[in-house]
Each structure stands twice: as C-alpha cells, then as structure tokens.
Design a protein that fits this description.
The structure is a single chain. With 109 residues, the chain is an all-alpha fold. It has one domain. Helix content is 72%, strand content 0%. It has four helices and no strands. It is elongated and about 60 Å long. The two termini are 32 Å apart.
Length: 109
C-alpha cells in the first residue's frame, strides 16, 4: 500500500514550489501598480496574495498584506493623485518580504 502521507507531502511541496515561481512576477506587478498609483488593482492583487499565501504555506506574507489592506480600508475615495498615508512604505516592506521569501526558497526555482 502506498504511503499516502508521503505522497501528500510531495504534492504539497510541488504546489508550494509552483506558487513560489509565481511570486516574483506577482511582486513585479504589485510594484508596478504601486508606482502607477492604480489603487483598485493593487488592492485586488493584495487580496489575492493574502489568500494564496495562506493557502500555499507562506504565512509570513499574510500579516504585511493585511496591514496594507487596513491602510486602504481607511480611505474610501482614492485617486491617482493621492496616496494613502503609509501605503508606499508598507507595500515596499511587503515587497522586501517577498524578496526574502524568494531568497530563502531559492531552491524552489
């Protein structure tokens, strides 16, 4: 009888690797949206990042993403001319965290 817990762990690790490979392009997109002040699209990407990071085993990305979402939730009407206070700094910190995760998991590539 096959070892199902071993197979499950292999599948989980394969999914984690696949997700990690998609983190770098996602970080690039988040950076682009931030600098272009495309707040609505940035919020969508952050929501997706939070959900998928949790699902694929990258909890260190969840808390900073939630913090940025909190910053945006305090601002109802956003225009490209205005940046929510702390949004740049918090998003830059998140991007640094993604870079750290990618560095720690460079074997995933």
């Amino acid at each position: 009888m096959p070892n199902t817990s071993h197979n499950k762990a292999e599948i989980q690790e394969s999914l984690r690797r696949s997700y990690a490979r998609r983190l770098e392009p996602r970080a690039k997109l988040i950076r682009q949206l931030l600098f272009q002040r495309r707040w609505s699209e940035l919020q969508d990407q952050l929501s997706l990042l939070k959900q998928t990071s949790r699902e694929f085993g990258f909890p260190e990305l969840v808390e900073p993403t939630e913090m940025i979402q909190g910053i945006f939730s305090e601002h109802r009407a956003l225009s490209p001319a205005t940046a929510p206070r702390g949004a740049y700094e918090a998003t830059t910190q998140l991007l640094n965290t993604i870079d750290t995760v990618l560095g720690k998991n460079s074997w995933l590539h």
